[in-house]
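A common beginner's mistake is to predict each chain separately and then try to dock the pieces by hand. The better habit, illustrated here, is to supply every component at once so that their relative placement is modeled jointly.
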Amino acid sequence: MFCYQCEQTDRSNADSGCATAKGMCGKDATTSDLQDLLIHGVKGIAQYAKRARALNAPDNAAGEFMLYAMFTTLTNVNFNATRFVTLIQEAAQVRDRVKASYITAALTSGLTPEQLTGPAAWQPAADMDGMLKQAADVGINAGLDQVGADIIGLRSLVLYGLKGVCAYAHHAYVLGGESDTVYAGIEDALDFLSNDPTDAEALLNQSMALGTLNLEVMALLDEANTGTFGAQQPTQVRITPIKGKAILVSGHDLGDLAALLEQTKDTGINIYTHGEMLPAHAYPKLKAYPHLVGNYGGAWQDQQKEFAAFPGAILMTSNCIIEPQAQYRQRIFTAGPVGWPGVRHISDKNFAPLIQAASALPGFKEDVSEKVVTVGFGRDAVLGVADKVIDAVKSGAIKHFFLVGGCDGAAPGRNYYTEFAEQAPQDTVVMTLGCAKYRFNQHDFGDIGGIPRLLDLGQCNDSYSAIKIATALAGAFECGVNELPLSLVVSWFEQKAAAVLLTLLALGIRNIRLGPTLPAFLTPNLVQVLVDKYGLLPITTAQADIEASLTRKAA
Amino acid sequence: MNTHAIELTTRDGEQLRFECATDQNLLEAAADAHIVLPAQCGQGSCGTCYADVTHGDFTLGKHNPAALPVDDEAKGGTLLCCTFPQSDLRISLPFDHDRILIGEIKVRNAEITAVDSVGENTLRLELRLAPDEDDGSVAEFEPGQFMELEVPGQDIKRAYSLANTGNWEGRLEFLIRLQPGGLFSTWLREQAAVGQTLIVHGPKGAFGLHESGLRPRWFVAGGTGLAPMMSMLRRMAEFQEPHPARLYFGANRAEDLFCQTELEALQAELPQLQVIYCVWKPEDNWLGFSGTPVDALAQDLAGAVVLPDIYLCGPPALIDAAEAAARAKGVPDQQVLSERFLPTV
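With all components supplied together, the output reads:
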């Protein structure tokens, strides 16, 4: 295996990357190699799908398969080798279907169909051992000796950014949000990669095109979330348990949570959110369920300890699973793209077995004294009080805004984000999103003239809210986003964050502080390009970065 | 007392470390460090705690030679329950990290809900766990694992593989061969009745399904070695796993075979499952395979296009013969997984 897609990738050698029998995330070499081969297969679908779409024969069902397949290859999503063997076979079948409709469309239009090569012409081996041999030629590092680390790094930037785009698009899709232009953009990017591009400029341009595409995807997702569940409202969420039977829901899929809430109505089972599900409490149609009682635990990296201590059943939706421990392996269920060998998977939103497990488990024996956090400052809530915010800035009561957000993780260097948020001066406002918030969301930030100093915008999936807020403020002050008293301090872990970073860069937003370490796939040369061309800043120390942000006149 | 640093590496590459004194066995030292490794008898007679020492010196205490074949011993194989370190050790474990319990083995009460004869000397025992404060009424275990059953107030404790799958009703199902003169067997034959309470320790054990893509899975069972195979196949049915699957189930005589109805029900849920009944000493009217399940395995391996993962459970002679047959046909060692049933009287 060779994989360096996430922040915790092995950096113990000169060449960073996980390349032994098992990655830092727990993914074994077999699964990692099969994921590489699946991506190869998906590129083959896109080669034909793009050409079919150009001839007015789009296949959005193939598009949906591509979203799902790409999503399964993100960090901490699916670790089941068997599932990947099946998906690889399915990829070839989908490709053959799209190929047939492309040929028909071409002939109907009086054109000679193109003879495509590369992934478009690949045939999956009959068994897993054969597939692993095929995977050896299509890994992320393929061609390294010929094209060099910079080009491999740029291809990785495109691929990993694209994985994030696909994950967000899948989140939108499961709530009914689909778009032809999004499928077309994804097909373009995969088709581009299928040619093993070697031109650095073209690769950078493709990265930025993906950033722009991702903005559209995030808008689609925002619309799907708010359209289905209403706009987020500021809401106090209990973070201590109450007595009774319990189910814990983690991951990002609000649709799965909604289905479970409906199926557990009147059962007496309480539903708790975990990790990135916390913002669910802010949506009117979800918080209307009285048995959505609170939030339990912290960010994803603490799940082994927290799940083992949780006295009920657990549902892991969409992503961010790590190896289920023996203590809770029989009572954790996966849904959507998530998978772990030997763990029960629910693919049809029929949560009866999960509910049965929760009924048999003891649940919480006692109430624990109430503690709360406040969530729900999505764009509607913040922009609803825009006048007040603008006045506070004009009067000097608010000197600066920080957006401190993104993914959390176990690395000790992530303390930077805790320190940054807690040390931000009293006349500044800290906006946050993603699970990095768990590092400081129980801290008492106080308020500025009634405006809370900590505004929780939602999941990482809600990055669109942050962009809308920034754009609206820039509009109100008649300046560009870079001229606002606003600094972005981004914590990344996996490929969704890579997609959001590309969006911010594509929007021309400069001086983004990125940490806790820079992606291993960005070579020193590539980092220099991002620093020079896009003003990207590696983090230093919290205190120094706060001071630098506050003394900055304009970017 | 000298202590040595012990480093364990699981099949899936996870590492665990603990200290062990020269007069303490590795299994106990690990448990002292809250690392509960798969084991059963704790006295070198069952072979459940087999592992390979890859680096370092140790002494091996008294053990049953049937539990540690000489070939394995020659290449560093040992039984952790009777291994005493003489230096720091590096040890390779033949199972994944998820089979190691960090904490303590559970001890719970269970009520007998059924005890039925399914063959001349074979019983099907069904228990229901008593709901308790910490575990509710769930029966949590991996297919292939076993429980130790203890008769309260009597010094009788025996390990048996589970035949069902984890569930939320607290059901535990066992297939038990009655050993002539066996303490637990005698108790089962003479005293066991519905409504009585047993103490159950577990789950324990590392035997179980190994994920390896869609490679075919062939299960070879002798007698009540069928129990863990039933559990694994039932899990496959429950998860609708697509792997091609075969079960070779052998007995000395046709009338010693059992659970045919259950296996038919399993085939209805897992249509790709082929069941090959093997009888060593058949009557003239026997229509199934004549010979041991190892004979049937060897015959089918000769024609196999893809070498399967092979799961073995039964008496040591059956396992040794099946392993030899698998090796002869070129099946890699890591594709052969086994659980030895050694009778304890």
